[in-house]
Amino acid sequence: MLILIVGHLLAICIGLSLGLIGGGGSILAVPVLVYIMGIGTREAIAMSLAIVGSVSLLGMLPHWRRGNVNFKTFAIFTPTAMIGAYFGARLASFPGITDTIQMMTFGAIALLASILMISRSNHVPKAVDPSVAKDNSRWWLIPLGGLGVGVITGFVGVGGGFAIVPVLVLLGGIPIKEAIGTSLLIITFNSIAGIIGYLGQVPINWSLTFSMTIAASLGTLGGAYLNQFIDGKRLQKFFGFFVLGIATVVLLQH
């Protein structure tokens, strides 16, 4: 019972992360499910996609009401991201892909994410003019970035908000708060594609998934509200160090 309580309290933190900074939920969800709840690696990744995908959609709504979701940029980024997420999930079923390989990959990506979060906390990227971004030769990198993020999402269950937000800001030419809201919608669709890729590979504890989703939903609603008042740079730096600790634990465990 105590483990269930702790796991669901941590699920609230997963939601807070998604609501506040538009990412980081999966980086918390997978370790919570594996190390706290005792779920197998592949099942935990599939469950995290269901939890984070559902909660991201809910967390996106307050951002949408404030006009912070760019559907045009979403339409450019998401199709290739979904393709990548599906094939990333199918990659997990290949011979030779063990739980250790997936968790080591997860730890390495979490480590990279923490470094990026900490370094960017001292400099929030500014959006370029959208017309310049559209005409710039780098514009094609948006769907390419979506493909890469999608593969990571499907293979290790990391939604990629830490990568999606700067790509949308720097290449999509949209403000940081708009990028956060848009990334939540992208994560939802990435997660759907990843779950489809895992269907038939692993059993999923749907009752636990549902209860963790409810707990995380409470957190993301609070996070989306607090996003208006909290200094994003300071928050991102704090969360970056927290993710650094998680990455270190995962890598040492394997």
UniProtKB/TrEMBL annotation:
Subcellular location: Cell membrane; Membrane
One Pfam family this sequence matches: TauE
Bilayer-spanning residue ranges: 6-37, 44-64, 70-89, 101-119, 139-172, 179-200, 206-226, 238-253
Membrane topology: Multi-pass membrane protein
Residues spanning the signal sequence: none
Record keywords, A-Z: Cell membrane, Membrane, Transmembrane, Transmembrane helix
InterPro entries recorded: TM_pro_TauE-like
Entry superkingdom: Bacteria
Predominant place of localization: membrane
Family: Belongs to the 4-toluene sulfonate uptake permease (TSUP) (TC 2.A.102) family.
Name of the molecule in the record: Probable membrane transporter protein
